[in-house]
Design goal:
2 helices, elongated, single chain
Length: about 70
């Protein structure tokens, strides 16, 4: 007989998807309780870094020019 290298399938696959749905629900509830918008925070952080990089480039340009 030939042995299979495939992962063994869980005995109860529906439990895994149920737990994932439950976890996502808990995370959404937690985020709403925090009063924060995760995508909004990501964009705010990206803008902050972009602005800091722009200021650094301006300072470097100013120092090399004068």
């Amino acid at each position: 007989m030939e042995e299979s290298n495939a992962k063994p399938q869980p005995k109860h696959p529906f439990r895994r998807s149920g737990r994932r749905t439950q976890t996502i629900g808990h995370l959404r509830a937690w985020m709403s309780r925090q009063g924060r918008n995760l995508p909004g925070q990501f964009l705010q952080g990206a803008a902050y870094r972009l602005g800091g990089g722009a200021v650094t480039l301006i300072i470097l340009w100013w120092q090399t020019r004068y």
